[in-house]
Every structure is written in C-alpha cells, then in structure tokens.
Specification:
alpha/beta
C-alpha cells in the first residue's frame, strides 16, 4: 500500500524521526527531490527564506553536517549566525537554556542544534518559539542524516518498501543507526544491524531490526550496505581486541560486497576510517554513493527549512 504524502509538517520542529509520520517523511523526500534542481542552476539560490534568520548552534565538532546546513540556508537566502561551544559563553559555564534565551533575544526563526547530550533539542523545542532542528544529539538521533540516507536510496531504487538495508559497525553508539532504523522500518524497508555483541545496543530488538553478529550472512540479498565508523570518543574502553581484527571480521571489502544483491549501493555517513570499517577499493568503487549522500544532504536540509517556514512541496524549486 502506497504511503500518502502529508500536506505539511505537524510540528514547528524536526527533533527526531520517531516523531515524524510516514506521510511527513514522504513529504520531505519529495520536496528535497524538487530542490535538487536548485543546485544545477547557474545561480544556486531561491528567495524562500529571505528575511529569516537561522542560528547554527553546534556544541560538538562537525564538518559535514554544519557545512551542509550552512549551504542549505544560503541557497534559501536566509541570514545565518554560527555558534560553536569553544567560542561561546558555554565554555565559560553558561547553560544551554541561558544560551538559548540570549539567542532568542535576537529573534531567530530557526535554531539548528548539535549537542552531546541526548534529548537536548527536544528540551529546547519546549521552551523557545523558534523552530528547532536536531543536527545530532548524543547517541539518540540524527534525523537529517537518516532522511538524506533514505533520499539517496529512493533516488536509486524508486521506493523504500521492500529494500533490504544492512547497517554495520558501532551500532551501540550510533545516532545514525537509530534514526535510520526508525525511518526505514516506518517506510517498509527491512533493516539488518551488524556488529560484535559488544557494539550492539541492549534494546536492539525494540527497534524492529534483525541483529547479526557476523557480516556475511547479513549481506545476503542486501540492496544497501551502510558502514559506520567506530566511535572511540564515546567509548570508555575499546570493545574489541584490535582494529586489525575488526577489519578482518567486519570491514566491507570487495569480496564481502559481492555477497550482496547485484547493484547493491554502498553508503557511509562519514567520516570514514579507511582500512577499519571499509576498504578503499569499496569506498571509491562504482557501487559507492557516499559522495552523493553529501550532495543529497543539502537538498534534504533545504527541504526541512522550507517546509518548517510554511512552504508547499509543489512549488519548492520556484520559490
């Protein structure tokens, strides 16, 4: 049964996939497809957010996500303010809520936030009138990454229903894995998590996925293989004997990729650790769509900003 596109977003915020309906997800994906056309124009800009202000509040290091949001905002003609923890009053002991109240005195329309504590964007959404967009909170969610991943799959396969998607790596500490599980299962895909037992979350069964402790059986018939890096910064100790052993048992190599379905696509949210979770021949190979994910991320973030501002999907690229 086809998923009907929603007419608009029901909330002023996008803080997680768990709070989005399948129809809202469909709306974001279809709007992003229209907005892809903007990147092909000689002048890559539309006036949809002219006169609006976006604050990028990044309390954790970020390159791809922060730059992607900044490009999306500029292409929609928004005014932007960029804050980072190291250069703000947070480094002097100011709380997140005091920072947010000070920012609201500048009357922003949107706050894009990345925060090391799970749930921080949700709490902020309840106390400020600006639209809050979650750019990653702790090990909880990374909704725009999951949306761009799904968008990339949709462009290649036409529909998410029935797709077999393998997500392998440091699942326990991955907000990307959690958001993808929420999104893909809502949209009718089959999700398989692969990791050593020490890197699988204790609540894995509640996410509606199949859990594997070896990569090879999970790859059988897979249409998409998404590799995740080992997040050493979130681990108190290394949860496996060595990086070399991890590569030997869990890395995506050409030989292992051949076990997937013909034409399977290789994905990675970045940053990649070549020679750990993925071989360079695979990362740079013809089945890799990793750089496409970066391009598609700008379109997805444009779509979210545009829709939260009250835009209509059927006129997105003409605004």
């Amino acid at each position: 049964m086809a998923i009907e596109r929603a007419d608009g977003l029901s909330s002023k915020d996008v803080v997680g996939i768990a709070t989005l309906s399948p129809g809202e997800i469909q709306l974001i994906l279809e709007t992003a497809e229209e907005l892809l056309e903007v990147a092909r124009r000689p002048i890559k800009k539309v006036p949809a957010l002219r006169g609006m202000t976006v604050v990028n509040l990044f309390m954790e290091p970020s390159t791809r996500t922060r730059f992607s949001f900044e490009v999306a905002e500029k292409r929609l003609s928004a005014d932007t303010l960029n804050f980072s923890a190291s250069s703000s009053s947070v480094s002097k002991g100011e709380t997140l809520f005091d920072t947010a109240r000070n920012l609201m005195a500048m009357a922003p329309d949107f706050i894009v936030i990345r925060h090391p504590n799970s749930g921080a964007p949700h709490r902020l959404a309840g106390v400020v009138p600006a639209s809050i967009i979650n750019a990653g909170d702790g090990i909880n969610e990374h909704p725009t990454q999951a949306l761009l991943d799904a968008f990339t799959m949709r462009l290649h396969f036409g529909d998410l229903r029935g797709l077999k998607v393998v997500i392998a790596g440091d699942i326990r500490h991955s907000r990307v894995a959690r958001s993808n599980a929420y999104l893909l299962t809502k949209m009718g895909a089959e999700v398989r998590f692969v990791a050593p037992a020490s890197l699988l979350p204790v609540d894995v069964e509640t996410l509606g996925v199949q859990a594997f402790r070896r990569l090879e059986p999970a790859l059988e018939g897979a249409n998409v293989v998404m590799m995740l890096r080992i997040q050493l910064e979130r681990q108190k100790k290394i949860n496996f004997p060595s990086m070399r052993e991890y590569y030997d048992f869990f890395a995506l190599t050409e030989e292992r990729l051949a076990m997937a379905a013909p034409g399977a696509k290789v994905m990675h949210p970045g940053p990649m650790n070549r020679g750990v979770e993925i071989d360079s021949l695979v990362a740079d190979g013809k089945q890799s769509v990793i750089l496409e994910q970066v391009t598609n991320g700008v379109a997805i973030r444009m779509a979210i900003l545009y829709l939260l501002a009250g835009g209509r999907s059927d006129s997105a690229s003409d605004s």
